[in-house]
Amino acid sequence: MTGARRAVRTTTVIVGAGHTGLAVSHLLTQRSIAHVVIERGEVANSWRTERWDSLRLLTPNWQSRLPGYAYAGDDPDGFMTMPEVIGFLDGYAAAVAAPVEAGTTVTAVRPLDGGYRVTTDRGVWEAPTVMLASGGFTRASIPAVAAEVPDGVATVTPLGYRRPADLPDGGVLVVGASATGIQLADEIHRSGRPVTLAVGEHVRMPRTYRGRDVMWWMERAGVLDEGLADIDDIVRGRNIPSPQLVGTPDRSTLDLNALTDAGVELVGRLSAIRDGVALCSGSLRNTCALADLKLARLLDRFDEWALGSGIDGELAPPHRPAPTRVAAAPRLQLDLRSGEIAAIVWATGFQPDYSWLEVPVLDRKGRLRHDGGVVTGAPGLYAIGLNLLRRRKSSFIHGAADDARDLTEHLAAYVDGVASARSRARVFHT
């Protein structure tokens, strides 16, 4: 495609060569459906360029599996580092011979009679179907309150953060207590900087329970396989923060109690910044109590499953972690002009970037309208890799397998339908 500007016809254009795009590519190849995978950088580009140095997967290695490929190393209970994740996905791309056009940036996807025109900086493709596999974590979600941060306080998102040494000397305010927030708070505090963590809604989860990894429980007890029909509020479910997990060689639990023990200060959700003063919610105690309650319900479900499966006696006895400890009077204000806080890390979530999607399929909040990855009002347009796309496990690497199978089956049926319609039209006009 180098230097080419004429449109190239294919059946499917996949946007993104991460694990979801590669999984779809493999399944399309098995069905002999012509396609191309367009990637702005290299395979696993976001893992290469938008992750901090010390990050490891939250899921154990045994759970790293994709259609036709799985982890085959000697540490199934370990957690991959970023170089290992990149190597895993490079190996997958080679094993399935994915037709990746690397170093190719999509600039527009537009409707075309009978399909879509995908314009890139290296040429144009036309296809009746397009799979959006660029993922749901391509842009940091930064709250509007960030505009009120006073000059002199550095700000960074997890997509730009690499290591504590890159931050200015002084205290750090980490906003957000999901998986990302607690990991960065811990790492930055270990570097010797004072850290304050602003805690909003969060999902508390132990690394291990009754001697088994929590992801073992989540998979065996059927939690991860729950589909859209099993969830009362899909919109809320898709916005629940990622669980407080960290993947470390010692399989330690990193929760708010562990951070408090280490010396991290907890405050409530950051609600506003006025005249350089950060105002924190007074609901920290209630927020933590709700997370503790939900954790207890999850562990009850695990125990019930163990009893019903007849393996309860093979496991360590049930137990419950201590309630989250909250200071008697957490601070409600932080003066960002005093010099106490030198930097703010916005660990406030992520969202997909559809700035190049010129198809009217986004709602007023910029979210893609879809039904389990089948984009609403745009026949032949699909999406994969979004949180709770079709199942609770959709955002995990292994969750791509079932989602990709479902969507490629739908796509293949759609392609067959288009071909049949064209064949009937030719007969009619003959």
Give a written overview of the molecule.
- The protein contains nine helices and 25 strands.
- It is an alpha/beta fold and 430 residues long.
- It has two domains: 7-138 and 352-429, 3-Layer(bba) Sandwich (FAD/NAD(P)-binding domain), CATH 3.50.50; 141-349, FAD/NAD(P)-binding domain (3-Layer(bba) Sandwich), CATH 3.50.50.
- The strands form eight sheets. It has a five-stranded parallel sheet, covered by helices on one side. A five-stranded parallel sheet has the order 12-21-13-14-17, with helices on one face. Strands 1-9-8-7 form a four-stranded mixed sheet, with no helix packed on it.
- Strand 18 (270-274) and strand 19 form a beta hairpin.
- Helix 1 packs across helix 9.
- The longest helix has 30 residues, at 400-429.
- The two termini are 36 Å apart.
In short:
The protein has 430 residues and is an alpha/beta fold.
Topology record:
Elements: E1 7-9, E2 12-15, H1 19-30, E3 35-38, H2 45-49, E4 65-66, E5 69-70, H3 82-95, E6 100-101, E7 106-112, E8 115-120, E9 123-127, E10 129-132, E11 139-140, E12 154-156, E13 171-175, H4 179-190, E14 195-199, E15 208-209, E16 212-213, H5 214-220, H6 234-237, H7 256-262, E17 265-268, E18 270-274, E19 277-280, H8 284-309, E20 333-335, E21 341-346, E22 350-351, E23 370-371, E24 374-375, E25 381-383, H9 400-429
Parallel strand pairs: 1-9, 2-3, 2-10, 3-6, 10-25, 12-21, 13-14, 13-21, 14-17
Antiparallel strand pairs: 4-5, 7-8, 8-9, 11-22, 15-16, 18-19, 19-20, 23-24
